[in-house]
Design goal:
4 helices, DegV, DegV family EDD domain-containing protein, Rossmann fold, 4-stranded mixed beta sheet, alpha/beta
Length: 111
């Protein structure tokens, strides 16, 4: 997962405004976000093909349509990092969405 510089991995959160093709080209790891569509919660890993399908299936033409992105909690980020990063790399650099736009930064800092 991701690009390594020595033993350092560069990660971004799934809310970043970067095309998946660029993420793949740069070899970045992606920390997922949660998307709530109506009553359904799905994991977003910057899968550009999956999001329009999600919107069509759960939001288009629905009276109670509602969608929001929800950052992982501290413990969920910690679990993700332990499972996917710590076992393979000595260091990680995590680039996040602005702290003024999401709690992901504070959750990641706490993790």
């Amino acid at each position: 997962m991701g690009n390594t510089i020595g033993d350092t991995i560069v990660l971004t959160d799934a809310a970043c405004d970067m095309p998946r093709s660029m993420i793949d080209q740069l070899g970045l790891g992606v920390v997922p976000f949660r998307i709530r569509a109506g009553e359904l919660f799905v994991e977003d890993r910057r899968d550009e093909a999956a999001l329009p399908q999600l919107y069509r299936k759960y939001l288009v033409d629905k009276q109670d349509h509602y969608a929001e992105s929800i950052p992982l909690l501290e413990r969920e980020i910690e679990d993700f990092l332990l499972k996917h990063v710590v076992t393979q790399h000595d260091r990680a650099l995590l680039l996040t969405i602005a702290s003024s736009r999401s709690h992901f930064y504070s959750h990641a800092t706490g993790a």
